[in-house]
Amino acid sequence: MKPTYIYYITCLVAVICILAKIKIDDQIIMATLLYDGIEGHAYQKKTISESFERSSC
After folding, report:
1. Number of domains in the chain
2. What's residue 57's pLDDT?
3. What distances in angstroms separate CA 17 from CA 5, 12, 28, 52, 55, one per listed residue?
4. Over 70: is that where the pLDDT of 51 sits?
5. 1 within some domain
6. What is d(CA 19, CA 47) in angstroms, rounded to the nearest whole number?
7. pLDDT at 31
8. Residue 56 placed within a domain
9. What pLDDT, on the 0 to 100 scale, is given for residue 36?
10. Is 42 domain-assigned?
11. 28-41 pLDDT, tens per residue?
């Protein structure tokens, strides 16, 4: 009984972490798109590529 309980908690934590990571990456991209008008296209490309590098463990 106990190992099954631990397994479910581990899966739940993993799903929450993945969803949080996706949400954070989306916020980074949205902020980057807002900055695009101010800082220019090079900044946008740099920030999006950095967020992809961080998300690929």
Report:
1. 1
2. 46
3. 19, 9, 16, 16, 12
4. no
5. no
6. 20
7. 76
8. yes
9. 64
10. yes
11. 777 777 666 655 55
